[in-house]
Amino acid sequence: MEIVLVEGDITAQRVDAIVNAANSSLLGGGGVDGAIHRRGGPAILAECQALRASRYGRGLSTGQAVATTAGNLPARWVIHTVGPVFSPREDRSTLLRDCYANSLRIADELGAGTVAFPLVSAGVYGWPVEDAVRQALTVLNAATPAYVTEARLVLFGAETYAVAERVAEAG
């Protein structure tokens, strides 16, 4: 699987699956989650509401992932994952890595060839960007999916992209 760093807007990525840094309610929010729901339209929210009414009555657990339609997005699916809130007193990095691993597993089960990931937890959840990139690349570099041939890490803003390039080059 090829890993590509891209500076840009995740909602504009033409891929099979877009990963959403969702909140546990699955009902939209701010940041990446809000942007995906706004651009994707009501079909995404409708499927999320159906998931809440059936399998996820208490919401989606941190580190887990579930797929819905992509609505009006230039993708077939949105894979929603709930990242952990950063804590300087508690190591939650396993949960963050689970977001990438479980989203990639779902994408592979769907038969997706290309997947776009945001930098999960690095926004309002406060995860330091450098470590968030390191955690994402640790999972993606170790993965051997059957169908996914390209994983894009979509970074919002030139500064975040520069940090990601530096971390990727350092290996």
TrEMBL record:
<feature type="domain" description="Macro">
    <location>
        <begin position="1"/>
        <end position="171"/>
    </location>
</feature>
<dbReference type="InterPro" id="IPR002589">
    <property type="entry name" value="Macro_dom"/>
</dbReference>
<protein>
    <submittedName>
        <fullName>O-acetyl-ADP-ribose deacetylase (Regulator of RNase III), contains Macro domain</fullName>
    </submittedName>
</protein>
<dbReference type="Pfam" id="PF01661">
    <property type="entry name" value="Macro"/>
</dbReference>
<dbReference type="InterPro" id="IPR043472">
    <property type="entry name" value="Macro_dom-like"/>
</dbReference>
